[in-house]
Write a structure and sequence with these properties.
The relative contact order is 0.08. This protein is an alpha/beta fold. It is built from 14 helices and 19 strands. The radius of gyration is 26 Å and the shape is elongated. A hairpin with a 3-residue loop joins strand 17 and strand 18. Helix 12 runs parallel beside helix 13. The termini are far apart.
Length: 410
């Protein structure tokens, strides 16, 4: 058997388990802290593959193996790799308290409504976008993806709780800092987990399903559910297809360029994405913010004109471009050069379609589109109904088909 013991957050290694081990594998601090048999071979975890190969040698000789891990080793831990290599039936897992549970306990908050994301050995941008979108997030950190890097990417409306050396009475520290403060600190190697909180919403509502963010029961909401000016809003039929092509999800960053009322931005945020809405009119900026507040979502609003104002923004996964104007091809081109996955464009004017399509294909996107024409049921006196046509809208979408060298294009 391979016995996997979660430790490091105050959980001791059972003496009976340690005594019989022929091989002990773990991080250096776990090996140093445990009472281990003198004759056992010790392997300090670094790269995982060599450690798994050594474990395989002992398993082949039917010698007992002890693996020491942090907290709960089945929660973003080594149990996955061991189960894949040796099968779950060969594992005896004895979990400790996870660093996430311990960190939330230290600050007196429940965490059944928290989203947990790992940045250990992964692209930090996913964790950043989850922190932007959700009010309560736990980030498991790693080299190059710690509190400083996380703080540098986030704005001041969040608080970071940095928990270090959890379970070590002499070294444990739990500190509340702003993202700006986190960005300029050297946090060392003892960080256990970082909590990212919107403290106004940190004590969330009672949950039935843990960890999974609640999904909206409806989308493509009626126009009447948004504040807008003179019907200048994407109709729900258009939004329904735009959302389907954008595919907003937790961990994504979406731009809504020419946001107007922000209806697309709000809908993407309701579906879990981090969202930046770009709007050039001052009253439009306030309208987007008001609509985001009304629907209980976070939308970062940038006041300015595209394409120039886009330069300082992080690269998006998907972009929605609304409105028109003579600079539309330049705006689409700028968005397409930055988008990782897709760009969706809504236009009312037929004359703008060829240039928009060319801007997408020139940036390496496959392009498709439709003309959306819909007629809605409208009641009339006498218990009868008529059809009322909405204005037709062209919807184009581009999906990236090739990697563009941004060093050349930008």
């Amino acid at each position: 058997m391979i016995t996997v013991v979660g430790t490091g957050t105050g959980t001791p290694v059972p003496e009976d388990v340690a005594e019989g081990a022929a091989l002990v594998v773990g991080g250096r601090r776990h090996l140093d802290a445990a009472r281990l048999p003198e004759g056992a071979e010790r392997v300090v975890l670094g790269p995982l593959a060599p450690a798994l190969d050594t474990i395989a040698e002992y398993v082949g000789k039917e010698l007992p193996v002890l693996v020491l891990a942090s907290g709960d080793p089945g929660f973003f831990g080594i149990v996955r790799a061991l189960a894949e290599r040796f099968g779950p039936g060969r594992l005896d897992v004895r979990p400790g308290v996870s660093s996430v549970a311990t960190a939330f306990a230290r600050i007196g908050l429940p965490w059944d409504d928290a989203v947990v994301v790992s940045a250990h050995g992964r692209d930090l941008r996913t964790a950043v976008n989850v922190c932007r979108a959700r009010p309560k997030v736990a980030v498991l950190t790693g080299p190059g993806a710690g509190p400083a890097e996380l703080g540098a990417a986030l704005s001041g409306d969040r608080v970071l709780v940095v928990a270090s050396a959890l379970g070590d009475p002499a070294r444990e520290r739990v500190e509340r800092v702003t993202p700006a403060e986190a960005a300029v600190r050297d946090w060392g190697t003892a960080v256990s987990v970082v909590l990212c909180l919107d403290e106004r919403r940190a004590l969330g509502a009672l949950r039935t399903v843990a960890a999974v963010p609640e999904q909206p029961a409806r989308w493509a909401l009626d126009e009447g559910e948004f504040a807008h000016r003179d019907s200048m809003i994407s109709k729900f039929e258009v939004r329904a297809l735009a959302l389907a092509r954008l595919g907003p999800r937790l961990g994504d960053l979406v731009w809504d360029v020419g946001a107007g009322s922000g209806s697309v931005a709000v809908e993407c945020a309701r579906l879990g994405a981090a969202v930046v809405a770009v709007e050039k009119a001052a009253d439009g900026v306030e309208r987007v913010r008001s609509n985001a507040r009304a629907h209980g979502v976070d939308v970062a609003v940038v006041h300015g004109s595209a394409p120039g104002v886009l330069e300082g923004l992080d690269d998006p996964d998907a972009v929605f471009v609304g409105g028109g104007g003579g600079d539309l091809p330049a705006v689409i081109g700028a968005c397409a050069r930055r988008a990782r996955r897709t760009v969706v464009v809504a236009m009312a004017a037929l004359d703008r379609v060829p240039a928009a399509r060319e801007a997408l294909t020139a940036a390496g996107f496959g392009c498709d589109g439709v003309l959306l024409q819909s007629s809605r049921l409208v009641p009339l006196p006498g218990d009868v109904t008529r059809l009322a046509a909405t204005n037709p809208v062209f919807l184009l979408w581009g999906v990236r088909t090739q990697v563009i060298d941004k060093g050349v294009d930008e």
